[in-house]
């Protein structure tokens, strides 16, 4: 693949390149192998591809019945080989090539493996699924539709779609997608399953062939699939994992430019009227974790809060990407003078200094990993490698991780300084396009403003929607059906007060501008951005073990350099 200078853009594309290398080019380069009877066949290149497809089809068909199945006897490869060669499996002995191919396949060539019982399996499941998907795509429409009721066939077809590079491949993917859309109209019980798979195929094709315009039949399919996905993402009757998948696919199929999305940021933000609002709880926090008791949500206090606007959702990866692409990490004007700017400059005197973030981050990681370090699983070098990753970077910590980098997931792995810089950058950009006037600016809300945004009226309540907890109101840690990553924003539209911001509880913690002082501390400077002290975070997350974190009064805190898989931020809009 490196010799061809072709960089894979997807799993399917990688498998196609690997098959070319391991099954065609490499065997011909090996001494003695080039005389193999199979390799001398004029149609070898196409035959070996079809044979691998049929073997993959055989194994995945077994998995549809037994999810643990992953191998077949080497002797059982005769039937799929005959199918691939276009013959009748009752007369495989009429094809001398069959025996040659069986022997050829048993040598593996980097894709297949044979154990001591002469059972043949794929070394990697992605190869198995890629070849199986290629085979399935050429089955009858009825076979495809019936098979795809089982999710075991979804990855194979998705990998197949992502490997396409020709207009014929584009046509085939579009045809299969159309069959699934038609099946969804006729089979209500499996409609969502078909719609999600149709979305996956279209999204995979978009990655495989980004320059091909959406025209004709594909435009109609695009509209139909997009409408189904966006409806499913906010349907309270649909399980969370399906809503999350639908929302992610919709975003992948409907990319928008930053200019298009930015104009809606202020327009869709929520106006929070000013007044006196309660913050905190009337009762002390009952928690086993000393960290949370250190900044107890007690005593409750009344706080005079001026009017402001707050974003409907946390900042998403799609929005944050423009900050990265426009050079925000290197534009020092975006970074407030002091610790934030010194961190952005990667100033070693600051980072490694006696009061710098390395000391605090190292101590924090030693505490978190004390069990692993005691058992020798993590050593000091590994710990410092992680601290380097945390501190020495120009993108969010998990920016390249597909579990956390989908377009409408909240951006995570950002520290407090990054959130401040994004707000300054966004102020400038929104003023330039006229969404803000010269007196308007963007900032992180204080923790008092954040809590006020959860309340319709100046009356304390534990949740944005009212007094009682309901399991389908937020993405939080649960005993069953727990999704161990963040989900796209906006898939809990019912979990707020009418006209209020969404996703205030669960999914990701949100940085606030406030220092982690107790409520009884009346000193000025609670929002002093030059202070290196810990900052409060609010809202709980998908990873939170603390049950009280689901309540809007709950407070946690982190040093400004910290960045986690479940920590993001939301912006607010103000007028000077």
From TrEMBL:
GO molecular function, one term: formylglycine-generating oxidase activity
A Pfam family matched in the record: FGE-sulfatase
Species the sequence originates in: Streptomyces sp. R39
SUPFAM superfamilies per the UniProt record, alphabetical: C-type lectin-like
InterPro entries reported in the protein's UniProt record: CTDL_fold, Sulfatase_Mod_Factor_Kinase, SUMF_dom, SUMF_sf
Taxon lineage: Bacteria, Bacillati, Actinomycetota, Actinomycetes, Kitasatosporales
Domain Sulfatase-modifying factor enzyme-like: from-to ranges: 268-572
Protein name stated in the entry: Formylglycine-generating enzyme family protein
